[in-house]
């Protein structure tokens, strides 16, 4: 006989919790995807990507990333500086 005070969650509660977790994951993914359309976020992403390539000695890849940042914002001084290095 199963007690009312059982520690195991009922199957319905477990499914509801799973659905809620999945929904929160989808919401978070949508928010992150929406932020990547922001030009400021995108240019900074390319700048950081270029910095990582530069640190690894992958200079052509770093140059491409800095150039992509400059395509988004041609007046992005930091990308111009790092591309010239």
Note down, in words, how this protein is organized.
This protein has 85 residues and is mainly alpha-helical. It has a domain at 39-84. It is built from four helices and no strands. It has helices at residues 11-35, 39-55, 59-72, 77-84. The radius of gyration is 23 Å and the shape is elongated. The chain starts with 10 loop residues before the first helix and ends with a helix. The model has no long low-confidence stretch (mean pLDDT 82).
Strand residues, percent:
under 5%
Terminal CA distance reads 74 Å
Q: What level of helicity do the residues show? A: over 70%
Number of strands: 0
Number of helices: 4
C-alpha Rg (nearest Å): 23 Å
**Helix and strand succession?**
HHHH
Structural class: mainly alpha
Shape: elongated
Average residue-wise pLDDT: 82
Unreliable residue stretches: none
Q: What secondary-structure arrangement, pairings included, does this model have?
A:
Elements: H1 11-35, H2 39-55, H3 59-72, H4 77-84
Name the features:
85 residues; mainly alpha; 75% helix
The gist of it:
This protein has four helices and no strands. The protein is mainly α and 85 residues long. The model has no long low-confidence stretch (mean pLDDT 82).
């Amino acid at each position: 006989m199963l007690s009312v005070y059982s520690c195991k969650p009922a199957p319905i509660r477990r499914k509801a919790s799973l659905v809620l977790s999945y929904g929160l994951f989808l919401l978070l993914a949508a928010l992150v995807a929406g932020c990547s359309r922001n030009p400021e976020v995108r240019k900074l992403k390319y700048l950081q990507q270029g910095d990582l390539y530069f640190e690894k000695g992958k200079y052509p890849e770093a140059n491409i990333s800095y150039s992509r940042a400059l395509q988004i914002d041609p007046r992005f001084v930091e990308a111009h500086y790092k591309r010239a290095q």
